[in-house]
Structure formats: C-alpha cells, structure tokens
C-alpha cells in the first residue's frame, strides 16, 4: 500500500518537473548584415552578407570572365578585402575588420 502511494506521488510530481522548455531562437532581423562594397572606380553599393558574389559584381558594374560557372577554372576570381573569391560560386563575406597598427605588430611611437 505504501509503495502504491509513493508511486502515485512520484508520478504526480514528475509531470511538473519535466515540462519541456520553450525553444530558443534569435530574431531573424538581428542576424542580417549589410556590407558596403566599393569598386576601383569609386562606385559603391550595399549588399547583404552571404549573398551571391556574382550579383554584387553586377551591381558594381564589374564583369568577371566566366568560363565554367562551377568554380573549377578560377577565371572569375575577384579580390575582396585582400582575399580572393570566385564570383560564380562565392558569397559576399562579412565586412572586414580593420586592424590597428599595434595589432599588426608594428611599433607605435
């Protein structure tokens, strides 16, 4: 009899202790970012971070040579913030963070 009472008590308590928590999600607006790109002629445009590099190039008026359009040949490679990106398959990277002179390891007077 005591065992049944303890079992009933545990079952009634367990339902309140094991309630699933609400799922955690960030609002989508906090994850979107805009990157300002500037071509060599000084023309600039704002594009979303992670968007297609080919679309960003066309907004800037840059026309890379496309041969394979799969990223194999590398003929469409463009320079973005000092790194090379294949425009046909690449994505717009995050805005580069400029390093200070001290962070580059140079002496500051």
UniProtKB/TrEMBL annotation:
Pfam families linked to this entry: Fer2
PROSITE patterns: 2FE2S_FER_1 (PS00197), 2FE2S_FER_2 (PS51085)
Domain 2Fe-2S ferredoxin-type: from-to ranges: 33-109
InterPro entries found in the cross-reference section: 2Fe-2S_ferredoxin-like_sf, 2Fe-2S_ferredoxin-type, 2Fe2S_fd_BS, Beta-grasp_dom_sf
Top-level taxon: Eukaryota
Signal peptide: 1-16
Molecular-function annotations in GO: 2 iron, 2 sulfur cluster binding
Keywords, sorted A to Z: 2Fe-2S, Iron, Iron-sulfur, Metal-binding, Signal
Classification via Gene3D superfamilies: 3.10.20.30
Full protein name: 2Fe-2S ferredoxin-type domain-containing protein
